[in-house]
Here is the input.
Amino acid sequence: MHRMPKTRINRIKLVLAEQEKTNRDLARELGKAESTVSRWCTNDAQPSLEMLYEISVLLKVDIRELLVSTAP
Here is the structure.
């Protein structure tokens, strides 16, 4: 069975790494399961826009920094 390449939609993992934070840190701050945050970081799942906003506030970044640019 041929798998489609995974589309990178969010940059949560990169922003966490830049801030030397872990999935566990973010999960704890959001009150979410670590497995949920892990799936966001691997782009297996995507947070809602509301959750993305909450993440941006917690990480003190512009919400656009959490999204992969689609510009050429």
Q: What stands out?
A: The chain has a mean pLDDT of 91. Residues 49-59 form the longest helix (11 residues). The CA atoms of residues 29 and 47 lie 15 Å apart.
